[in-house]
Give the backbone structure.
Amino acid sequence: MKLTHPANQGMEPCGWTNGEVLFGVGTASHSVRTLLVLSIRTRTITPTDDLLDVLLDGMQNAGHEVQDRDILAVAETPLGTTEGRVVKLSDINVSSKARELSEQFDLSPEVAQLVIEEADEILGGIPHVLLTIKSNTLMANAGVDKSNVPSGSASLLPVDSRASAERLRREIKTRLGKEVGVLIIDSRTQPLRLGNIGMALGVTGYRPVADDRGRKDLFGNELRVTRRAIADNLASACTAVMGESDESTPAALIRNAPVEFVDESFDSSDMWIDPAECMYMAIFEQWRKGGSAVRETLRD
């Protein structure tokens, strides 16, 4: 996926070239930055694999070479597969609470039990999905997923995505001599929007959020609340080329990303906003506590 990104205006899609989607942006009189997202297709990853070995083989087969200041994005399920985070549902001991959730929300009892164990809080649900908070992040089923794992199994999120990202970064430095960033990604939904977008779980080598508060816009107005979710936006770009079904594309290589490279690592706690400051959570909490009285006030 190749995006030319402007200092100014005028984005126009140019089409597909060898599996890459290109967007031409800007005019001849303004500088243009090119963001390149290269998909990494691999064989099926197994629990006994060295993940970086498999990814490097995939890059070699595609003719990709890691360069300094690239960012390697890796999906959480193949990463978790190599870290022992795939479990057999037949090994799960189901509690009475899990059976209640299973019946209420049409989930398998084993998945409901895993969600109870993985979630920091369960807020509610709809058929087949529980809305949870895990590691300061709203997500479906606390990251428990039955896709892209053998039948009768489920994947869990990596225990420490920051540490996993940092390990991969160090391995690349040791084996290839390259200074890169690493991004561990998952997908999520947005309120009242169809489809999944990308989400960063762990980041190393660059800052995941850009704080634009205090900067001026094109008309001199000072920005008061704007912070850009750089890592989440890059994760979304990667999901466009990686897919989520049978593409066998568990990773992507990002080049020329507009990030601030640093020798630090980050996790969800560094991309978190206090619920009291979060528009969705603050209003949801008022709605939940106020019940019909709040809803009637909003209607008026």
